[in-house]
Amino acid sequence: MFIKSFGCQMNVYDAGRMADVLAPEGFLETATIEEADLIILNTCHIRERAAEKVFSELGKIRDLKSDRASLGLSTTLAVAGCVAQAEGAEILRRQPAVDLVVGPQSYHRLPDLVSRARGGIKVLDTDFPADDKFAALPQPAEAKTRSRGLSSFVTVQEGCDKFCTFCVVPYTRGAEYSRGPEQVMAEIAGLTAAGVREVSLLGQNVNAYHGVAQDGSVWSLAQLVRAIAAMPGILRIRYTTSHPNDMAADLVEAHRDIPALMPFLHLPVQSGSDRILAAMNRKHTVADYRAEIARVRAARPDIALSSDFIVGFPGETDADFEATLDLIREIGFASTFSFKYSPRPGTPGAVLDGHVKEAIKRDRLARLQAVVDPQRQAFNAACVGRVMPVLFEKIGRHAGQIVGKSPYLQPVQVDADPALIGSVRDVEITALGPNSLFGTLTEAEPPSRAAQGS
Ligand code: 5AD
Ligand code: SF4
Questions:
Q1: C-alpha span between 401 and 114 (Å, rounded)
Q2: Which residues in 147-287 belong to E strands, given as ranges?
């Protein structure tokens, strides 16, 4: 079996769980796509021309499938992820090599769906079923066939009720749903038993998390983070992606009080113009965003920020775009993701007037990147001379070197004992390389705050 994943971290996580649910059926992951008797294309609908890219990818796999057939090998081809959800039967119609189309809410049914597809039936499952996918998927502790390393994603929330006018998520991933805290923590206990030390809690709108516990109480994301931080073996917690309106006071306090919660916040704002934010149905203003950032920075002064931006949303004028650049200059971001607006069929944005010409979008994207790139470089450069906790993950490329991650997800290379892999140590950053930082362990060797309890 070979799972080819595109897009967000949610898809990376989903790919792992698909592998988990199929492993007991005898499907083991192959090193290359050519060897696989089951190919799953795990698709993303966010990027431009997502569906066309999937069809061109499927064309290549069709050729591969017929090469294998000429050797007497059968291949089952499945399409999963958000394009599967959005295009559904259209995929089966347009590409006959596809045997199975499965939406993100149905992955727990994969063993049955794959066996039906292998029986020669074309299978389509893109319902939003009432049964609980998460409960039906195997716990990672049961899925012993996969090695996970030190850092793992855990989906805690899926779907979205916000309906930003550019976005397909409410249509492809459905209504917002939060997993129960006990279920999440059981999964994390399994992960820590397998050596995981860092969890990234995932959700399309993760800070809107509101998991119902077995006693009926409703937990916020901050409560969940607090409980996870107290679990043995957990050294670091991250979460993504958040909406500015859901930065609750207790979550801001969690950034102040919980050392394991990393000081790195991805909080998409999309635009720096109130007019465009309203047209996007973001339900907040630039001033609201500014105020959120001020609260978070007051609670955790060393927090680094990251955001998403869309340029060329319908109706965006030069003045609107300049307002976005002004906001970026004012706030200062350690990292950003920027996109040219591209209409998604079925979303309200696609039928708005005032679509912006491609050349203008391209120009605005380049201008935006010319502002954010130096900010990112300046942030990295400012890390030199700082002492920061590093979670060591693996042996480095050069002899004697081990590599870990800073709180800001920068790779850090250090000459140190490989026995430190799996633990957090304070490192003084000494130099900036092209793709990573270099550092030395600080003199005093006691573990940093975050490493205690490991
Ligand atoms: N066009 C351009 N960018 C988009 N995004 C989501 N939908 C679109 C679209 N139709 C971007 C947003 C979001 C990120 C994941 O992808 O910035 O935050
Ligand atoms: Fe999409 Fe995020 Fe808006 Fe939800 S909050 S509709 S996931 S951009």
A1: 44
A2: 151-155, 157-158, 177-178, 198-202, 210-212, 218-220, 236-240, 264-266
- The minimum-distance atom of ligand 1 relative to the CA of 337 is 17
Q: How far is the CA of 453 from the centre of ligand 1 (A)?
A: 40
Encoded amino acid at 448, one letter: S
Cα(45) to centroid(ligand 2), Å: 13
Q: Using alpha carbons, select from 448, 450, 449, 429 the residue that is nearest to residue 439.
A: 429
* Residue linked to tokens 């900036």: 432
Local confidence pLDDT in tens for the 454 residues of the chain: 999 998 888 888 889 889 989 988 889 899 999 999 999 999 988 766 778 889 999 999 999 999 999 988 999 999 999 889 888 888 998 899 999 999 988 898 999 999 999 988 888 988 776 567 777 777 664 444 344 689 999 999 999 999 999 998 898 888 999 999 999 999 999 999 999 999 999 999 999 999 999 999 999 999 999 999 999 999 999 999 999 999 999 999 999 999 999 999 999 999 999 999 999 999 999 999 999 999 999 999 999 999 999 999 999 999 999 999 999 999 999 999 999 999 988 899 999 999 999 999 999 999 999 999 999 999 999 999 999 999 999 999 889 999 999 999 999 999 999 999 999 999 999 999 988 999 999 964 545 444 444 4
**Which residues lie with the beta carbon below 6 Å from any ligand 2 atom?**
160, 162-164, 167, 169-170, 204-205, 243
Nearest ligand by distance to the CA of 176: 2
Q: Which atom of ligand 1 is nearest to the CA of 308?
A: 17
SS3 129: coil
User: Alpha helices of 280-347 — where are they, by DSSP H?
Assistant: 286-299, 318-331
Q: What are phi and psi of 217, to 5 degrees?
A: -75, 155
User: Ligand 1 atom 7: the closest Cα is on which residue?
Assistant: 167
What atom in ligand 2 is closest to the CA of residue 163? 6
Cα of 204 from ligand 2 centre, angstroms: 7
In this prediction the pTM is 0.82
Whose Cα sits closest to atom 1 in ligand 2? 167
